[in-house]
Design brief:
Blueprint: E1 10-13, H1 16-23, E2 28-30, H2 34-48, E3 53-56, H3 58-66, E4 73-76, E5 79-80, E6 83-84, H4 89-93, E7 98-104, E8 108-110, H5 111-122, E9 127-133, H6 138-145, E10 151-156, E11 160-165, H7 168-179, E12 182-185
Parallel strand pairs: 3-4, 3-10, 4-9, 7-9
Antiparallel strand pairs: 1-8, 1-12, 2-11, 5-6, 10-11
């Protein structure tokens, strides 16, 4: 499953078909307010005991940390719904032993972001990926690179928390979505 998706200078871009696919949660939607949703997520995590836990998004990551649930990998852009969240920057940054900074424009996945997510999942240190741009699509990359039985948490806007349990079926689904993305070479 670890074949390279991207070559140097190439990016993946969303298509209308991909947008329709990712509008639906990739995993279990917990349609509750954040504190309650995280209680449910913590319960599932305690039962499933994932080898890696990843959060995607500032709101989810911050709520995890404040609930004493520290993701092994956190992917943030220090923005919530396109607004800066600098008041939480120190709180988030101080938790992680390895901080990787990548550029990933909206509606795409860059090779730099792809490689940072891959590196984060093989690291023995808790890793924060600070995205300059947008991190939303990196939930796909996290699900692709995460070890089997890992859990990815991300927010579904105005709906709740999504918990993705990574198994072979989920990896195949993610791979099919990634293969439907458009490819472009950039200078």
């Amino acid at each position: 499953m670890q074949e390279p998706f991207l070559r140097k200078g190439e990016i993946l871009l969303t298509t209308s078909e991909v947008c329709k696919l990712i509008r639906r949660p990739l995993g279990i939607l917990i349609p509750e307010e954040p504190k309650i949703a995280l209680r449910w997520a913590k319960l599932l995590i305690s039962v499933l005991r994932p080898p890696k836990l990843c959060s995607v998004g500032d709101f989810v990551t911050l709520n995890c940390l404040r609930s004493q649930l520290t993701p092994d990998v956190a992917i943030v852009d220090l923005r919530v719904k396109r607004s800066a969240t600098f008041s939480t920057k120190a709180e988030v940054l101080s938790t992680y032993g390895l901080v990787l900074e990548v550029v990933n424009p909206p509606s795409c996945i860059t090779l730099e972001a792809w490689e940072a997510v891959r590196k984060a999942f093989v690291s023995t240190k808790r890793t924060l990926i600070r995205v300059i741009g947008e991190e939303d699509l990196l939930a796909l990359v996290a699900s692709y690179h995460a070890p089997l039985k890992s859990i990815i948490l991300y927010g579904q806007p105005n709906e709740g928390l999504v918990l993705v349990y990574v198994d072979e079926g989920k990896k195949d689904k993610i791979k099919r979505i990634l293969l439907k993305m458009a490819r472009r070479f950039v200078e």
